[in-house]
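Lab notebook, bench 4. The sequencing result for the construct came back, and we need a structural model before the next group meeting so we can plan mutations. Quick request posted to the team channel:

Model the 3D structure of this chain.
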Amino acid sequence: MVKYLGGPLPLTSLNHISLLCKSVEDSINFYENVLGFVPINRPRSFDFDGAWLFNYGVGIHLLQISKNPEDLPKKSEINPRDNHVSFQCENMQVVEMKLQDMEIKYVKRRVEEGGLFVDQLFIHDPDGFMIEVCNCENLPVVPLAFASHACRFPSAIDSKLQMILDIRAPNQQQHKSVLSSSVQ
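Done. Here's the predicted structure in token form:
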């Protein structure tokens, strides 16, 4: 195993994901009208077709396959264990009804941990890239171990984590110091 010295990179957030697509127009239509992304300005200096979209604090960069679009493998089966991006939602029932109304095929899963449940819906974009929609906030993000660096949480998650750690922590001072450093 490679040993990475000096601590992790000084990252602040996820900026965007890039996706290869057979048709930029079809993908824009999907990400705009199904997932609510908004097309944004893309530098004109690129020498290939594509589009940038943004919402929910993250960008999606669509990259047109230039040579043979049919070379992009088509995935027909929705496999929740495949590579995917996940979006949090406010109401899973509304999302499921909208997917049914739009006649978008999906797979439904439920995860249970300690009496807490997370509902998941998995769909494909026009090119077979998998997307999950979930109510993952039901499951708290609790670090497994206290490393030399701390997780950076949005303030809402940080508050939930603090409550959980206060309940579970045998040494609350250690946990509070890690949480304090995560919001700096």
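The beta strands are 16-21, 38-40, 50-55, 58-64, 84-88, 107-113, 116-124, 130-134.
Will bring this to the meeting.
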